[in-house]
Amino acid sequence: METFLQQIINGLVQGSVYALVALGYTMVYGILGLINFAHGEVVMVGAMLVISSLTAMLSWGVPLLLALPISVVLAMAGCMALGYSIERIAYRPLRHAPRLAPLITAIGVSILLQNLAMMIWGREYHAFPQLIVSQPHHIGGAIINDIQIIIIIMALAIMAGLMLLVHRTRLGRAMRAVAENQHAAQLMGVDVNRVISVTFMLGSALAAIAGLMVSANYGLAHYYMGFLLGLKAFTAAVLGGIGNLRGAMLGGLLLGLIESLGAGYIGDLTGGFMGSQYQDVFAFFVLIAVLVFRPSGLLGEQLAERA
Amino acid sequence: MNSSALKRGTPSLSQGEGWGEKPDVPQLLEVRDLQVAYGGIQAVKGISLQVAPGELVALIGSNGAGKTTTLKTLAGIIAPVSGQIDYDGNSLIGRAAHRRVAQGMALVPEGRGVFARLTVRENLQMGAYTRSDTLGIAADLERMYERFPRLYERRDQLAGTLSGGEQQMVAMARALMSRPRLLMLDEPSMGLAPLMVKKIFETIQEVASQGMSIILVEQNARLALQVAQRGYVMESGKITLSGESRELLGSDAVQRAYLGG
Ligand SMILES: Nc1ncnc2c1ncn2[C@@H]1O[C@H](COP(=O)(O)OP(=O)(O)OP(=O)(O)O)[C@@H](O)[C@H]1O
Ligand SMILES: [Mg+2]
Prior knowledge:
The structure holds 2 protein chains of 2 kinds. By secondary structure, chain A is mainly alpha-helical. Chain A is built from 12 helices and 4 strands. Helix content of chain A is 75%, strand content 4%. By secondary structure, chain B is α/β, with parallel strands linked by helices. Chain B has 2 domains: 3-104 and 180-258, Rossmann fold; 111-179, no CATH class. Chain B contains 10 helices and 11 strands. Chain B has helices at residues 67-75, 97-102, 120-127, 134-147, 149-153, 164-176, 194-209, 221-227, 245-250, 252-258; strands at residues 7-8, 29-38, 41-51, 56-61, 82-87, 90-91, 105-108, 182-186, 213-218, 230-235, 238-244. In chain B, the strands form 2 sheets. A 7-stranded mixed β-sheet of chain B has the order 1-11-10-4-9-8-7, sandwiched between helices. In chain B, helix 3 (120-127) packs parallel to helix 6. Residues 10-21 of chain B have low confidence and may be disordered. Chain A binds chain B through residues 170, 173-174, 176-177, 180-181, 183-192, 302, and chain B through 75-77, 96-99, 101-102, 106-107, 109, 113-118, 122, 125-127, 129-130, 174, 178. The structure holds adenosine-5'-triphosphate and magnesium ion. Adenosine-5'-triphosphate binds next to strand 3 and helix 1 of chain B.
């Protein structure tokens, strides 16, 4: 029972991160029908920017309460600029190209960003500065620490905010209109290119926050961390139904839970043959199962008409 | 095919009628020698037309004549190969579609282009996208609901769940929400029951009487010419005939080709 509760907590924390990243995939897919495989790398850049700027400021004696928000804003701004540039430079020229072209470009951008990050930050792991003594709390025999509580609450707040933006504002309305019919949106006076840029920037801002969360939670960041994280968040988006915002959130949280419960019980399930190091297998098992049995995902019914 | 008071080809306005090309009447829209192609295929082969402020002009012609292509080009969705489009005294060539909307052009496209996954209300709000006068928008929204009570009943329903006729009302109301100076309608009666056609045409006449300029593309040539002041007949990418509506209605050529007479 204790392990079960503990796995649920871990799953929710990890799932929150997946959900934020999955939202980026799904927003871009919804509006352009494009899978932005470079999105995981944006998360990595976000983590690196937070760690570098925070470490630097702390070493200059900037008080933590000032340094943390500054570095988060910096990372978000950096990621938004990166997301904007990726769309502008790599994807926009291919807007009317056959679908394979932007897909291959996305993989290319992803590799490019990994290599650039390796040149800037090196191959070593970067430690997230010890900011606060993250207090562990005991609930029903399981442990959750401050950082994990903050991650879950922040993720929920951000997702609620995003839903409000998309469903209650003029910009959100324009985003949905562009996602559905670019020509008709133009005829309403919507600057479609601007809306697409804003969508990339929003997704990238969420990626920066996700980068902050993973690196704070694990205490580490690495130039290669975006690859697996991105792939899993993509899986989460597909699980929920790609192009569907609620689906991305649901898929993210579910995938986090599946992974963590799977890792917790895989030893029992296989009679000790496989250990929790096989955790990553679950995400891809889920991906394959969804693609085989329900390609439109849990909440997506509109996939067929867009694909 | 012979015509008496009507002119063939373009520019083709019968002289001395007091409309059209008189230099002292500033045109809202002035199209000269417009050519549009899809890839190598010419769809519009050098047409000229004018729309004066407050004028309702019909553009009729058989399937594939190039009417939709013409409207899309005017709206900025397609770039022309050559020719001039002057709107309100300024050239529109090279101007993005979304900026034309801000200047008062609105197109109700063929097939309506309603946002199926947005509610009726959101569709209408999209129509007012370029406006920032919150109070004016709210007032216009009420006005649309008054004009189309059915839309009021369905305001929180996804537009994709509406009937074809209701969607046409959405498309029309949405275009009017931008408070256009030039409204372009591409076959607003298509697929509608007679009662609904009547409703749509009443709306067209009403907004026309309030001083809006309108280009009306229609398969139903008789109906279009009955409400329009002037008409252009398009065939295979060219304007073959133009003139006052009642003259077009009476002409043998139009009778034979479009009115089944
Ligand atoms: N996207 C396109 N690509 C290639 N050719 C096109 C395209 N759209 C239209 N055409 C061609 O251009 C010509 C004019 O088409 P258009 O749609 O403007 O005609 P229309 O007068 O609106 O006809 P209808 O009354 O049937 O709506 C047709 O021959 C059509 O086949
Ligand atoms: Mg047409």
